[in-house]
Amino acid sequence: MEFPVIVDAQYCSPLEVKLTIAKKVLEYNNGNFVITDSEGHTLFKLDQKKVFLRELTVLRDDGDCPVVSIHKKKISLHDTYQVYKGESSKELFTVWDKNMRDAAELTYEIQLEADSEPTFQVKGDFVRRNYEIIFRKSSIAAEVAKKHFSLSSMITGKSNYGVLVSPNVDQAFISAVVTIMEAIHNENKEKHGGKHSDSH
């Protein structure tokens, strides 16, 4: 089954690619969020220091060019995120929470702008960063897991995990989805955890 190019063909590789999500968490609670390749080179990074998607967040490449911008929508009870190319108004895809909050197994659906129904699903254990991004309910586009963390890009702090991206899958698309999952589950943790979160 052929995977669609979603952000740009330059982010697709004919080989399986291992990405590392590295959060430098020791910088006085203001850590950076970067996505690196297996050699430790930065592929994508977040505009903001913290992975909170308020209204807008931009994922940039290592040269600071905008790759995608992620808009959080407050229009419904669902977490809904719309992703645009660069900082343009060209919408690429939308991510939403299929089951609302109380479902035992969370599933997120991703609908490409050109499609009339969801093309990808994201399901698994988000708290433990162990989940899959599935294309048309049959092919694994990417697998997110602690076990895919690559030691060559070890960064101080314990908040690291890996993403195994299938051949020909758009890595910028996968990175945007992983960023959204990170933000949702970071926010939930802060909301429900013992620590008080900022009120603004």
UniProtKB/TrEMBL annotation:
Alphabetical list of SUPFAM superfamilies matching this protein: Tubby C-terminal domain-like
Pfam families recorded: LOR
InterPro entries given in the database record: LOR (IPR007612), LOR_sf (IPR038595), Tubby-like_C (IPR025659)
Domain of life (superkingdom): Eukaryota
Family affiliation: Belongs to the LOR family.
Family annotation (PANTHER family): PTHR31087, TUBBY C 2 FAMILY PROTEIN (PTHR31087:SF161)
Name of protein: Tubby C-terminal domain-containing protein
Organism: Marchantia polymorpha subsp. ruderalis
